[in-house]
């Protein structure tokens, strides 16, 4: 009964917000207007391991799909997935309505802060330093050793490596690639010995290693830091954010969110 009650409350909150807010309120939340008109959520997604991918027959799968299926059941809304064309323009695309929300969650970082509305905490992701797995890094026992001009990091502008390598390792060199460059270019720099290290989230490394086993390895036992992973909404989507996050909160209280996280291997 509590489970059904939680579902009913979540749907009621979304329903009331959709039909009862003034027209000026709807004008302020353009994504909600589109969702209300079309009866579907247009989800911005990107392929990254168990967060979002496609089965052999092309069916979307992963954490994003399991989460949005649950939201669909509780709201009666359909869900349509649209892959993000470029991370260099993702927040502008969100603002202009190319997506109603970003349904595959992103790291909350300086590059994603103050550009859209982040949702509540979903999971955390460790940010680590990786290198070519064929090289022996046993002599590297602390981060201070990496702050040396003999080392080179590779990263993208306004992305993990581009942000944190110069901040944390100012003496090291940095091969800075434009934001939106295919991530494979960073790995090519490492394997071609143009760079020693790349800064990646653990989830990104897992996704890469599933396709390329034995190519990368973590350089230090400790992580640089832990970042939160969250849904993102357009900067004017206060009503949409409030209602979707209320549903996610109900899922969390009912234990369903934890089951989806564990099912997709995101609980460690």
The low-pLDDT segments are 1-26
- Helix proportion of residues, in percent? 25-40%
User: Which overall shape is indicated by the principal axes computed on the Cα atoms?
Assistant: elongated
Relevant CATH superfamily of the largest domain: Periplasmic binding protein-like II
Overall SS class: alpha/beta
Task: Indicate the CATH topology of the largest domain.
Answer: D-Maltodextrin-Binding Protein, domain 2
Describe the sheet with the most strands: 10 strands, mixed
Quickly give the CATH architecture of the largest domain: 3-Layer(aba) Sandwich
The average pLDDT value, as a whole number, equals 90
Number of domains: 2
Number of helical elements: 10
> Could you give the order of the helices and strands?
HHHEEEHEHEEEEHEHEHEEHH
Which percent band covers the strand fraction?
15-25%
* CATH class term of the largest domain: Alpha Beta
What does this structure look like?
With 268 residues, this protein is α/β, with parallel strands linked by helices. The chain contains ten helices and twelve strands. A hairpin with a 5-residue loop joins strand 2 and strand 3. The N terminus is likely disordered.
Q: Which descriptors would you attach to this protein?
A:
268 residues; 10-stranded mixed β-sheet; single chain; elongated; D-Maltodextrin-Binding Protein, domain 2; 23% strand; alpha/beta; 2 domains; two-stranded antiparallel sheet; 39% helix; disordered N terminus
């Amino acid at each position: 009964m509590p489970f059904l009650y939680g579902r009913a409350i979540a749907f009621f909150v979304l329903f009331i917000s959709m039909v009862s807010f003034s027209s000026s309120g709807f004008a302020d939340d353009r994504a909600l207007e589109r969702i209300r008109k079309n009866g579907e959520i247009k989800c911005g997604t990107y392929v990254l391991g168990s967060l979002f991918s496609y089965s052999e027959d092309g069916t979307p799968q992963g954490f994003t799909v399991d989460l949005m299926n649950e939201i669909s059941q509780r709201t009666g809304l359909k869900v349509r997935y649209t892959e993000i064309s470029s991370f260099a323009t993702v927040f502008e695309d969100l603002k202009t309505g190319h997506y109603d929300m970003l349904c595959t969650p992103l790291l909350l970082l300086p590059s994603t802060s103050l550009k859209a509305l982040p949702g509540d905490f979903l999971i955390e992701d460790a940010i680590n330093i990786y290198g070519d797995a064929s090289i022996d890094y046993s002599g590297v026992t602390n981060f201070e050793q990496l702050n040396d001009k003999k080392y080179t990091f590779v990263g993208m502008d306004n992305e993990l490596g581009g942000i944190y390598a110069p901040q944390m390792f100012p003496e090291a060199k940095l091969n800075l690639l434009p934001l939106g460059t295919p991530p494979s270019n960073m790995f090519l720099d490492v394997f071609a010995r143009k760079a020693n290290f790349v800064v990646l989230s653990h989830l990104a490394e897992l996704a890469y290693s599933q396709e390329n086993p034995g190519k990368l390895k973590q350089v230090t036992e400790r992580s640089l830091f832990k970042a939160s992973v969250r849904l993102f909404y357009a900067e004017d989507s206060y009503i949409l954010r409030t209602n979707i996050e209320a549903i996610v909160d109900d899922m969390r209280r009912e234990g369903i969110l934890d089951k989806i996280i564990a099912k997709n291997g995101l609980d460690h």
